[in-house]
Design brief:
Largest sheet: none
Shape: flat
Number of strands: 0
Helix content: over 70%
Structural class: mainly alpha
Number of helices: 6
Strand content: under 5%
Length: 137
Amino acid sequence: MQAMSSITKQSWRFIGFWVALQAVLALAVDRPNSEFNQELAAAKQAVERNDASGAVSHFSKANELRQGKCSECYIWLARIEMSAGQIDQALTHSGQALATATSDGERSKAQLYRGVALGRENNLLLAEAAFKAAVVS
């Protein structure tokens, strides 16, 4: 009976240790996501306040937290740059948005803004192709 009690205590200690370890690991994994979400929210708030430089800073930081693979960040950067007349940079960022897109919706948005930027450069043939790709995505 005592041997059974000892095994049960060891099992409960192990389970307790395992649960604590999983909680610590979950917090470590969630921290970057939490920081990313905070940067993304701050960037969108900056857009609402018409603070382009603040928005660019926060979208860039959010993208950095995703190791340069945040398609949504690139799309927003392209939008901000188009509104500032920086069409070349907008094309670059819309291309990066397309390259990092992980869903049809992201691909469609990237093609849409790529098409708008190409249209502003009077490259209507490529703009049309981008718009068609946006619809297909």
